[in-house]
Amino acid sequence: MNKNPYQVLIVDDEYYFRQLLLQIIDWEMLGFCIKDEAENGTQALELARQENYDLIIADINMPGMSGLDFVQALRSEYINTKIIFITSYDIFEYARAAISFGASYYLLKPIDEDELTNALAVVRDELCEENEFSRSLGELKQQLDETKPILKDHFIRQFLLHEQSVSPETLSEQARYYGLKLEFSSYAVIIVELDELNTRFAKEQERQLWRFAVQNIVQETLGSAGVDCTFINVEKNQLAVLASLSEHSDTTLFDLCEQSRIFIDQKMHLFVTFALGQSYESISQVYLSYSEALYLLRYKFTQGGNQVIAYIQDHMGAEDAVFSLPIDRSEWLTALRQKQQDTVTELIRRACDHLMESRASKEIAQFVLMECVSLGSAAILERGGSLPPDWLTERHPLFRQMHILETVAALQQWLETFFREMVFVEIEKQLPRSKNSDIVTKAVDYVTANYSNENVNLQEAARSLAVNPSYLSHIFKKEKGQSFTEYLTNIRLDKAIELLNGVSSDGLMSLKVVDVSMKVGYTDPYYFSKCFKKKFGIVPSKTIRG
Hints:
Strand order of the largest sheet: 2-1-3-4-5
Structural class: alpha/beta
Helix content: 55-70%
CATH topology of the largest domain: Alpha-Beta Plaits
Distance between the termini: 135 Å
Domain Response regulatory: 7-124
CATH superfamily of the largest domain: Reverse transcriptase/Diguanylate cyclase domain
Radius of gyration: 47 Å
CATH class of the largest domain: Alpha Beta
InterPro entries: CdaR_GGDEF (IPR041522), CheY-like_superfamily (IPR011006), Homeodomain-like_sf (IPR009057), HptR (IPR051552), HTH_AraC (IPR018060), Sig_transdc_resp-reg_receiver (IPR001789)
Oligomer: single chain
Domain HTH araC/xylS-type: 441-546
Protein name: Two-component system, response regulator YesN
CATH architecture of the largest domain: 2-Layer Sandwich
Number of helices: 23
Main location: cytoplasm
Shape: elongated
């Protein structure tokens, strides 16, 4: 039930009949109140234009403007008040006309109290339902108005990201609904990326303020030149701008973007990269411009940020070339083992130059980055140490930056910091020089004790000493001036000549040479003789004393 009574206008030329209606019906109980009375159609029409009645009860036959003419005039002015006709004439033409005007009831005089009460109850219920529907519709409209900016953003995203399947007429109608102007000669998409936004500003509120400031500057610069701009947020550090131009001129748009960039750089001290797609005559083609702008942002990684990058056909296919990894692991490990920081810095520079010259994608650059991190880890581990806590985790401040590097220049700086402040520091901490000497001494002792074992080699020695084979090979050669294998061979052959010099001339010579080769770790006597001659210049049998 409506809290406020529904307002009624009674229209009848008979004063006593109007009074009768007031007396025989309990209007308040039924939820109505008699707001006004009129004695003819003309007077009633003036009242209806001024007041918003819920129900009009009208006689049909009145002097001047009849009830039917009155209601027809109401409907022509889109006044859709509920109507109950009351008349003394049971004429079919009247009833048909009443129905055509949307009258709720057609009642005959003398009026039946119960019949009118029932009619009023039905009209009241209809009014309640309609009011409830109107209220719900109003709430939906309010919700729609509140969400319209979000829906507009979604609409723009859809035709930026995808080729539209709807007709140009439907697209234009939807665009007008969201307030997008369509009287322009061409359209283009600009992606504005705030360089290193997440690195420079930790708080989301700060990032939002900078995005808003950049948007205002772009809006003012382009808008002052007659470019209509519609903005949407596509990524946390990006703004997409639908630029609508009165004249088709990519060059003009490029210059305006450059003006915005210079102002932001000089006045706000913020680096911003503009990626500008080509302009198209139809708004249904802007998804192509957006794709081009998005593609251009890939070049920011190798070419650097804080610039305007415009789409040209030469960009196409630049990343299709075969990419070769710019890292020689052996060269890097040698520099790391010898703690040559300048050499490592130069290797980093060369690798990054290669990334830029080949216009490598960000994904390839990340692969190169991880390869360098792997080399740094290997250099630490091969010295017998262990990786520091939080290595390669988000908990470490340096590693937390790994996946948000936006340019090759930033990647180069990160790698230089990584090797200078982490890898070389850990190498110095893990194994001091004296420990290297201890390892070499233990390796020599291992060879002395096990040279007669045919299975002794660098890998077995390293396993016995619990060190990396590559590291053992490196420090052994540095300490002893010869490789581990050369040292093992010399020990074996020196022992062999001592044994052979102890054999008498009447001994079984062939048997003794075989025995000696077995005693010093050679299972193949012919290979033993070859190594022996290479070192001493004679075959083993010639060394036996006569």
